[in-house]
Amino acid sequence: MYRAIVTAHIACGVIALATYWMAGLSKKGSPLHRGAGKAYLLSMIGVVASSVVMAGFAFAREMFVIATFLAYLVVITTTAMALGWLALRRKRDQTAYRGTGYRATAVANIASGLAVFAFGIQQGDALLMGFSWVGIIVGGQMIWRTWKPLAEAKWWLREHIGAMLGCGVATHIAFLGIGIRRLTDAMGVQVDLGLVAWFAPVAVSFLAGLWLERKYLAARTPLRQPAHAAP
For residue 209, is it within any domain? Predict the structure, then answer.
C-alpha cells in the first residue's frame, strides 16, 4: 500500500513539474496557460493528499523529522495553491478574498512555522530551522495585508503570481530534495544536492518574481474609489 502511494505521489509530482513549466512559459491568460494551470492544480492535489498519508506513515515509524517536513510542506503548499486559485476567483472582491479563511490560514502558517522552528532547534536540524521561516513570513505578510490591502487594480494578479511562485518553490524543493534522489537511486547513481535543493528554488523564485513584476505589474493602476453622491 505504501509503495502504491509513493508511486502515485511521484507520478503526480512529475505531472505537476511538467504542467508548472508549461503554464509558466505559455502566454498568460491563453487557453494553454489556463489548461496547464488547471492540470497543475489537480496534480498538486494528488501530491498533497499522498503527502498527508506518507507523513502519517513516517510518524507511525517514528521518523519524526521526515513526518514534520512532509506535514509542514502540506501546510505551505496548500496555502499557495488556495491563494493562487482564489485570487482569480475573487479578483473583483478583495475583501471577500481576505476573509475569515484567509486570516485562519495566515495563523496556521505562522503557528506551523514556529512549531517547525522549535522542533528544528530540538533536533539540531538547520534545514528545518531555515525552512520554518517560509510559513512565518508568508503568514505574517497575509496578516499585514488584511490590515492594509493592496491598493492597486491588479492586486489579484500580484497575489496569483506570488502564490504560484510559492507553489513552484515547494514543487522544486520536493523534486530536487527527494524526488531526484529516488530517481537516481533507482538508476544506481548517487546524487545529493544538499542545500542547493532547498535554497536554489527560493533564489530562482525571487528573481522570477522581480522579472514578472516588471513585465506585468510595473504600472500600478490604483483601485477605483466608489463615487459618492452629492449631498
Answer: yes
What is the three-state SS of 202-219? HHHHHHHHHHHHHHHCCC
Q: How many domains does the chain have?
A: 1
Q: Tens-digit pLDDT profile for the chain (231 aa)? A: 888 988 888 889 889 989 998 988 888 889 999 999 999 999 999 999 999 999 999 999 999 998 998 899 899 999 999 999 999 999 999 999 999 999 999 999 999 999 999 999 999 988 788 889 889 999 999 999 999 998 888 899 999 999 999 888 877 877 776 666 666 665 666 666 666 777 777 778 878 878 878 877 776 666 665 444 444
Evaluate whether residue 137 is within a structural domain. Answer: no
Residue owning grid cell 475583501: 95
